[in-house]
Design a protein that fits this description.
Blueprint (H helix, E strand, L loop, with lengths): L5 E6 L4 H10 L5 E8 L8 H4 L10 H4 L4 E2 L10 E4 L3 H13 L3 E4 L15 H4 L5 H9 L4 E4 L3 H17 L1 E10 L11 H4 L10 H12 L2 E3 L2 E3 L4 E8 L6 E9 L5 H10 L17 E3 L8 H4 L8 E8 L5 E7 L3 H17 L4
Parallel strand pairs: 1-2, 1-4, 2-3, 4-5, 5-6, 7-10, 12-13
Antiparallel strand pairs: 7-11, 8-9, 11-14, 13-14
Helix pairs in contact: 1-12, 7-9, 7-10
The protein binds NADP nicotinamide-adenine-dinucleotide phosphate.
């Protein structure tokens, strides 16, 4: 699809997710960054001065010299899309101001994920839920929009569950996460708390993992999203991994299936037709590894440039039906890359 370049901005540009946005938007074929914004601690400073860059890829030259502005629509008038990597409290106040000003907000924050008129999107799974934007504009009387992506632990899990749901139906899922440090933002968890340790509690995370997949695996109806009738139980843990969330899942299906049938369904899974062929469409959407000790965060997190979901260890479960391990990159597919994919869908559906 050829189209004019769209001006965009990043809110929370100095943080863990904000840096991923800056990196992934470098040379994006559709989007050009016209503003970077952060808190009043950073406002007025050059990006290179305010940001403690933690990515392996170098900070893009165009970003180094940009002066950080405040996260308000008045200071970011030129952007048609803002990518929000704000903490949830700030996102709750600020994101509607942008939507009111006619700007589309692609948000990583949890503030509006549960709102009935706000799409919670993994385009490869539920691209049709973008239809909620029309209802949102009608209800809220704004010409902008708020679109959200799920919490980073639900991301790969939901992609894998959708492939299984489509072929065999789903009743229950019991999941245990091993979550990377970058998921806690920067500087995040103190080193003395996490080295030689596992922290078996991440505030609010279990509730998100038990609810968000139900919205994404649900159906879009004229009355809104009908939640999928699947029950979840989640344990969420922080581990000493830099990037890449691992989830161990056991699932009960509508009807039993063999590991071979599950592997075939996962391998054959393709992105939703509305979300295929976009610049950020994962390739492959799901990669199934056959080795007994994969996926591993250090070896597998950059599969498909960090946008693919990697599944392995598919085997029978003695309590439910099937168990497996799923890995996805939390700040790429689970955050910035996911938001950019959502924005591409918004543009390709002519909803911008
Ligand atoms: N990390 C992940 O894997 C992940 C995945 C999915 C979703 N998320 C969500 O994405 C959001 C960002 O997470 P993160 O991990 O990138 O956090 P982070 O590293 O703590 O970064 C927060 C960013 O927000 C800015 N900020 C803080 N307070 C602000 C305020 N009052 N006004 C304006 N800007 C403010 C910070 O700017 P300063 O540098 O100026 O303080 C920084 O740029 C959160 O809502 C998080 O839950 C994160």
């Amino acid at each position: 699809m050829s189209q004019p370049i769209i001006p965009v901005a990043v809110l929370g540009a100095t943080g863990s997710v904000g840096q991923r946005f800056v990196s992934l938007l470098d040379n994006h074929p559709w989007f050009k960054v016209v503003a970077l914004a952060a808190s009043d601690r950073s406002e007025g400073k050059k990006y290179a001065e305010a940001c403690r860059w933690v990515l392996n890829d170098p900070m893009p030259d165009w970003a180094r010299e940009m002066t950080l502005v405040s996260c308000l629509p008045d200071t970011i008038r030129d952007a048609r899309i803002v990518f929000s990597a704000l903490p949830a409290d700030q996102a709750k106040d600020l994101e509607p101001q942008f939507a009111q000003a006619g700007i589309a907000v692609c948000s990583n924050a949890s503030s509006y994920r549960r709102a009935e008129d706000v799409p919670l999107l993994l385009p490869e799974v539920n691209a049709d839920h973008i239809g909620l934007i029309k209802q949102q504009r009608l209800h809220r009387g704004w010409s902008g929009a708020i679109l959200t992506n799920p919490n980073c632990t639900s991301t790969g899990l939901t992609v894998a569950l959708n492939a299984i749901q489509d072929s065999f139906g789903l009743k229950r899922a019991f999941v245990v996460s091993l979550q990377a440090l970058s998921g806690a933002g920067y500087p995040g968890v103190p080193s003395l708390d996490i080295i030689d340790n596992v922290i078996p509690n991440i505030g609010g995370e279990e509730e998100k993992v038990e609810w968000e997949p139900r919205k994404m695996l649900g159906s879009f109806t004229p009355q809104g999203i009908q939640l999928a009738d699947v029950k979840f139980s989640a344990h969420t843990n922080r581990v000493a991994v830099v990037d890449g969330h691992t989830v161990c899942a056991s699932v009960e299906l509508d009807a039993p299936a063999s590991p071979q049938e599950i592997i075939a369904a996962l391998s054959a899974y393709r992105a939703h037709p509305l979300a295929a062929g976009l610049p950020s469409t994962p390739d492959p959407v799901i990669l199934v590894r056959s080795e007994a000790d994969r996926p591993q965060p250090r070896l597998d997190r950059f599969t498909g440039k960090g946008m693919s979901t990697v599944v392995g260890r598919v085997r029978p479960d003695p309590l439910l039906h099937i168990k497996f391990v799923v890995l996805s990159h939390n700040t790429i597919r689970g955050a910035a890359g996911g938001s950019i994919y959502n924005a591409e869908l918004l543009v390709s559906e002519k909803l911008l």
